[in-house]
From TrEMBL:
Transmembrane feature ranges: 7-29, 41-59, 75-93, 113-131, 152-171
Keyword annotations of the record: Cell membrane, Membrane, Transmembrane, Transmembrane helix, Transport
GO MF annotations in UniProt: cadmium ion transmembrane transporter activity; ferrous iron transmembrane transporter activity; zinc efflux antiporter activity
Family label: Belongs to the cation diffusion facilitator (CDF) transporter (TC 2.A.4) family.
Name of the molecule in the record: Protein p34
Top-level taxon of the source organism: Bacteria
Keyword Cell membrane: yes
Domain Cation efflux protein transmembrane: 11-202
InterPro entries per UniProt: Cation_efflux (IPR002524), Cation_efflux_CTD (IPR027470), Cation_efflux_CTD_sf (IPR036837), Cation_efflux_TM (IPR058533), Cation_efflux_TMD_sf (IPR027469), CDF_Transporter (IPR050291)
Cation efflux protein cytoplasmic domain segment(s): 207-284
UniProt cross-references to Pfam families, sorted A to Z: Cation_efflux, ZT_dimer
Bilayer topology: Multi-pass membrane protein
Coiled coil spans: none
Length: 296
């Protein structure tokens, strides 16, 4: 968990650095498109703080009021990030409208673009770090932050190309038009982040690949049982929750059934880092002849 906290703190510093560079680029040029890029970076800084808070809360151990832990806190951070992206997009559309009404030539466009692209390179490197390490640490807050930065990088490249086109052609109306396009793209990005986060808040099941691995582990580690059925899974941040019914022969002792359950739980925790496992042991007459067949 310390790794995710360090990455979240790093995002705050990177966010401030990129925001400063992009604001300088806008100040030099007066470009509405570059202003849109800078406005999106303000969201990066705010959501970096939100991600840090969410990760620290999610790391807290279970307590009497939260017996299943605080894992879902990270999803709230991702939802907040999506909402803030949408707010930034609306602000950009407002600035783009003003630019449409009074289009004007840009000051020092090349200098501004060089500074802006330097900020884009920093964002690109950090986005790769957040997405790769966030997936490794199973942190949806870091992954959402990284995916947002990827979108920021792509829009920054588009902004640079558009501003160069406006300078080359003298069609200054392209500047606010480009800002409006950036806003629409940001809106779409914000919606996707909110949608993905809500799926976690709604107790979405694990991926098909992870589910297949869970079934395989149960089938190979439940020697002594005959069947496992009614398997259910859900995930919350880095935590995975599993529960299922395990059918054992009627003459199986409580001790023997407990040993089987321990073997399955240990294998799931070792191979998949499953956080919570609930197994309901049933006698053989409860068999449904479906689900997971135990392999001898």
């Amino acid at each position: 968990m310390m790794t995710t906290i360090k990455l979240a703190i790093g995002s705050i510093f990177v966010g401030f650095a990129v925001l400063g560079l992009k604001t300088l680029a806008y100040w030099l040029t007066g470009s509405v498109a570059l202003l849109s890029d800078a406005l999106e970076s303000t969201v990066n800084v705010a959501t970096a703080f939100a991600a840090l808070i969410a990760i620290r809360v999610a790391a807290k151990p279970a307590d009497a009021d939260h017996p299943w832990g605080h894992h879902k806190a990270e999803f709230f951070s991702a939802v907040l990030e999506g909402v803030m992206i949408i707010v930034a997009a609306l602000l950009i559309l407002h600035e783009a409208y003003d630019g449409f009404m009074t289009p004007a030539p840009l000051d020092a466009p090349l200098e501004g673009l060089l500074i802006n692209m330097g900020a884009t390179v920093i964002n690109g490197i950090w986005a790769w770090v957040l997405v790769s390490r966030g997936r490794e640490q199973k942190s949806p807050a870091l992954v959402a932050d990284g995916k947002h930065l990827v979108t920021d990088v792509l829009t920054s490249v588009g902004v640079a190309a558009g501003v160069l086109l406006a300078v080359g052609t003298g069609w200054w109306i392209l500047d606010p038009l480009l800002a409006a396009l950036v806003a629409v793209n940001i809106l779409w990005s914000g919606w996707k982040i909110v949608r993905d986060s809500l799926s976690g808040l709604m107790d979405e099941a694990v991926s098909e690949a992870t589910l297949a691995r869970i079934r395989e582990i149960i089938a190979t580690q439940a020697d002594g049982a005959t069947e496992a059925h009614d398997l259910r899974t859900r995930h919350a941040g880095s935590a995975i929750f599993i529960d299922f019914h395990l059918v054992v022969p009627g003459d199986t002792t409580v001790f023997e059934a407990h040993e089987i359950c321990d073997r399955i739980e240990n294998a799931l925790k070792e191979k998949l880092e499953v956080t919570h496992i609930t197994i309901h042991v049933e006698p053989e007459h409860k068999s449904k002849q479906t689900g997971i067949i135990v392999l001898d």
